[in-house]
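Final report, Chapter 2: Outcomes

The project's central promise was a pipeline that accepts a single protein chain and returns its three-dimensional structure in a standardized token representation, suitable for archiving and comparison. That pipeline is now operational. To close this chapter, we reproduce one record exactly as it appears in the project archive, with the input sequence first and the structure output second.
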Amino acid sequence: MLKRRYTVLIADRTTGVVRRVTISLRAALGVAGTVLMMPVLIGIGAKMSASIEIDTLRASNHALEVENGNFRATTGELTTQIQSLESVIDDLGARSALDPAQAKAMEKLPAIIKQRAAGGTAATNAAISSVLSTSLISAEDTFGALRSLLTGLESRLRIVTRDVERQEKLAAATPSIWPTNGWLTGMFGGRSDPFTGENNFHQGLDISAEKGHPVYATADGTVESASYSGDYGNLIVLTHDFGLSTRYGHLSKFNVKAGDTIKRGDVIGFVGSTGRSTGAHLHYEVLANGKLVNPLQLLTQQPPRNKNP
């Protein structure tokens, strides 16, 4: 049956030409089948293409989810580090707050001493502000900005730490407490010599007190010497950081020796009247970079009371 052949006549009415087309049943069925299958084939192809595209999108979405997870984890770690550094910097700022009396004494120090203690500064705040104001358009930009911020904070932390440590060190080295409890009987500067009555320059303060009364170190330091020294009698010399030193004269006896490390408020000796003295008292001097300064301007705090050696 499939071998049958059919003839189709095609006539042109205008010219009268007649054309014959002979086709077999098998060919006709093939053409018809092809025509009928075209939508099906197109649908199958579209489905396959859509399936491939969906798989590609799923793979891309999974890759993005992994990348976003890594991004969140990394930015979270960087943010945590930044917050930790900011907290440390804030703590250092609180730590740097000084007792008002101590700060007042430090303000009176000679400029050369304060310059020695001053640390350098860096414009990290401006750099941090610049980073924060930058428009971030990609993960790389965000990571770069956070790392730059972290680096800036680390640099700032080093600077703040150094400055706080220097300030604490200067505060400890500033002779700010009275060296003994008593009555101020001799001022720094010009006065009449108690022995000759002539005008002379008094290099420190005289504080009258009973013999044996404790004498206190006015700042942290090291005992440079504790020995008899001419007009000073029994004399203790303490050296402090940043070129500061103090002298304690006319002592009855010592409570320290050369090389000892002492803290502000430690009992270093006792009031006496040794050397060129008219009575029991403490002669107290302060030197900055080897030059005498008026101790009175630095004395902002009372010494500890009844502190036993």
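Archive annotation: Residues 115 and 232 are 32 Å apart (CA to CA).
This record, like all others produced under the grant, will remain available to the consortium after the project formally closes.
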